[in-house]
Amino acid sequence: MKEAPKTPGALMVQACVLLEQGALDPAAQTLARLREVAPEQAEGRVLEALVRQRRANPAGEWREAFIAAWIEAGRPDFSGEPLLPAETPGWGPEAIRAVWTGTQAPDTRLLAALMVGPSQEQQRWIARHLSEVADPDLLRATLETFHSETMDETARRQIQASLRERLTPLAAESRESQLPLLMLLEDTSQEAPLTKEELQALERIAALPRYRTTSFARLYADAERRMKVAGIQAPVDGAFMAAVGELALVGPMVLFKRVKATTELPEKERIRLGRALWTLGERIAEGNTLVERLVGLRQMEQAAGLLPDFEVKRAQVAADLARGRAMVAASNQIHLDGWPLPSLHRDWLKASLDNEWKHLSALVAP
Question: What superkingdom heads the lineage (predicted)?
């Protein structure tokens, strides 16, 4: 920069650039000016602590250093009005809608529509062209999207019928429970008690060895590939969020509500339901993303309420749920998008792909 920046935002950007370059002394000088100009801004405290962390361990992980700096600064909350707004050109709804208008490829159009929520015109187009889409993961994501009653009724019914015809054979052969569970419940009323036939089907589904067999890293790679093919210019965590959207959690959400509505069961059937729910919840909680762990734990908590002698396990599940919710709150407080530190974003993404629950546990460590 030819002139020294004077505004708090510009000073923060300059400090981050210098940190990335390893120029710690100039970064510290810039941060001293930031504290003079905006002493109330907690970003300055965090970055000063980050400079100290980088001095102590220049080759260390940015993620670990940043978390330590945030904790040292008193765990400030940046979710309200961060110093820098999170702006990502080419990633907003308008840019994604432009992908729709710029292509006739069915897979690409479907992906773009699902990412921002299909308009009624797009819903009708999907109903006409769904037979041209081959990717089973996109088909499953479409079925989850069109579970919503806010969709155009005619298009929704047409799309659901087409998807059931194509996905039912896949569900019957599946060794994972996510698709069979979705197919069992997606067209049922969420206020309806479970039937005996559904309980039997649920027991068969719970007996399957995994909720999903595809690793989350593979889901991320597939989402990244689809977005590149579609011409969607996403931020470094864009494919991560798209992959989270493909975790097929509508089935567990509907199941939770159906179980809640099932209030009059004989003791034997109640215990059978509780065991199936507990097993399925454990399968879901084996996933390494935060959302899977929370969904699985919530289902296990619900199951424990149906089972005798599960008070101790229920208390442990409740403690794990509270810890997970604290992780969500802490992650929101950090507001990672407001920190222009590419190395931090890369380390954060890698840790999230490896094991998001373990990674975010560091935010709530004593």
Answer: Bacteria
